[in-house]
Structures are given as C-alpha cells and as structure tokens.
UniProtKB/TrEMBL annotation:
Keywords: NADP, Oxidoreductase. This is Retinol dehydrogenase. It comes from Chaetomidium leptoderma. PROSITE patterns: ADH_SHORT. One of its GO terms (molecular function) is oxidoreductase activity. InterPro entries: NAD(P)-bd_dom_sf, Sc_DH/Rdtase_CS, SDR_fam. It holds the Pfam family adh_short. Belongs to the short-chain dehydrogenases/reductases (SDR) family.
Amino acid sequence: MVDFQALIASARVTLFASGNQRGVAFDPARDIPSLAGKVILVTGGAGDLGKQVAIEFARHKPARIYIADLPRDDDGASVINAIRDAVSDEHAPISYLGVDLSSFESIKTAVAKFCAAEDRLDIAVLNAGIMRVQSGTTAEGYEIAFGINYLAHALLTKLLMPTLLRTAELPGADVRVVAVSSEGHNLAPKGGIQFDKLKGPCEDIKYYQRYGQSKVAIIGLARELAQRHPQIKVVAVHPGRIMTGMARGLQKESRLFRAAAPISPVFCVSPAIGVRNHLWAATGADVESGKYYEPVGVPDKETAVAKDRSLSSRLWEWTEKELESVKC
C-alpha cells in the first residue's frame, strides 16, 4: 500500500523547499582560515557528511580532530586512515572517540575520555543523525530519532560546555557549535514537538514526523544555547539534499524512497558540496549566533513553529529536567 501522506510530505520538501547551494560563495580550500592550535569534534564523523567535514578541516592543520561515532572493532583506525589518505597526510592528528548516542552512559564515558585528553574545544559539529521507518527507543526509553538526533547532542553539549567556555576565554578564541538540523523540520507534527510522546517509540505518528520534530528541536537548541552563552557562537544548519548513508538506509526500509532513487541525482549533491554549509558555519565570517542557516549561509528560512520562542523555551525547560541528573 502506498503511503500517500509520506508521498506528499516528501514531495513538499524535495520539490518546493530550499535549494542545495545558493547564498554565500564559500570554497573550503580558499575560505577556511588556518585552524592551527584548534581542537575540533565531529559527531557522526565516520559517515559520509561527517567524514567529509573532517577531511576539509584536516586540510587546514588543526591541533586535533576527534571523530565521535559508534564504537568499532578497529577503534576507528579505518576511518582515521581514510581521512589521512584523503588529505595525503599519514600523520594528520585525528583521534577516534567511540560513542553510542542512544546511551547516556556511553556519552558520559566519551566526554570523560575527551576531557582527560584535551583542555580546549574550539569547534563542535553535532552532525550525527538518523531517520528510520522502524520505531524504537534509546537506552533511557526516549523515541529513537529524538533521542539520538536531539537529546544526545543536548547532553553532549551540556557536558562539554565547561570546556567550550574555558576555550572562549583564551586570546583570539572563536568557539563555535554547529548543530545539524534539516529542511526536513518542515515535516514535524502539528505544534512542532509532541512532548507527551517523547518517552516511548511514538508509533502513532509517521516516521518522517518523528524525524521532523527532532530537527525542530535542534533549531531550538541552537537558539537557546546562543541566548545563554553569548561567549560562543551556536547555529543550526541544513546541509542540503545529499545522498548519504542515511538516505541509502531509508531506501532499504521505504518503497517510496526506493522508487525515488533513480531521480535522486536531480535533487541531490555530493557530500563534498553538501558540507559547505557546515564548514561556513564553523569557520566563516558573518555567522550570527542563534540562527538557522540553509546552504550556504542563508538565514531565517525555518518554519513558523521552528521560530517560535515559546516552543524553544519549553523545550529547554523539558531538556533541563530530563538531563538534570546526568553528570560526568
């Protein structure tokens, strides 16, 4: 049976939402400044987008890049080697930080390892995310998309905030947090976030609505963090429409996505193009804290519900309550 609601929602975003590349002319090779001395963390850094972000950063010689992604049998050696090969530098300072974002305990352990190794953090790119047809929950019982895409990153940022703020006090510091949202936040259910259903699998709303509300939440997180921590820049970004591992995974679960696969090249760009908004937000000039940007550097394109300050304020209060007992 064809899911006509999913078809309409997908068409609305694919055909009528933002384009892939407009706005600021940003060339990573030319426009990323020297990153000498800087420490960078990228969640989802083993995937298509996250790995490309790390590659572009590595070309500009930071002190160290941390790839935060699921634990691997080889401790991330294959990911590290792939990035080093891409930049032709077998000694590029890259470390792998195993973390399962569906578990608060795993996040706490990863942050403890990072803080034991580093006393600064200049750029955090909160890039990891999922979009699944199948429902599920995190280790703590939260709806899986909201738990991984939003709440895990809210916790990660909370635990790393002392290091971020300490770095912001250093001479010449330019500390940034880039949280990856999506134009898919358009797909959120009525009201933006269904707070009463965030615990549990949330099976009574469509998978794309579960994804959409997690991306509305990311926009709200950036706004609330920016308001509370003016010493650092915090923004949310939409990368553009990119054929990534997440999209390929959806093709396995969804007949609609499989049917759309042949025309995806018309609407999608490569990860090398898709990361430009990440990179501009992390390093570019004229980035305004608290904003949501579509590619590249185009502000204020979020929906009315995503702009709703009362919603982001309620989200902040809900998040603080859910995470109040979680400490390193």
